[in-house]
Amino acid sequence: MTATFTPTRLACSHGPDLWFDGKLIGQYSTQRKDGGKDRWTELRLWETPAGNWVAESVGCSTRENEGVIREARVIERPVSVRLVRPDRQGETVRILTSPAEVDAAMDAWNWTTAAKAFARELGWDVVRRVE
User: Does the reported pTM lie above 0.90?
Assistant: First the structure.
């Protein structure tokens, strides 16, 4: 079964809140499986029906007087570079096809260690070869 686009609202800590119809493409969390961290990061990548992406980063905390910090950036993707592949459940997922698009998503997540781990899960090449 193909995932459907659902109305989504991201209340961002800095910048405008985002409202869009979205399909979650992937997510990554630095929280341990036992839930033992009191601070962690969650990254999500959403796709809109137009093929654009929303890169979301959430700083989470269970510490007293600390709240959630959510950031999100829209990555507009040209139709000409979209390719598709099946994901682990056999659903069609759009993938990045250019270093510029990878860089835009990674910039949204500040190239953190968590972002690099998420990129590996997505199959993205985030290594730049310099000559």
Answer: no
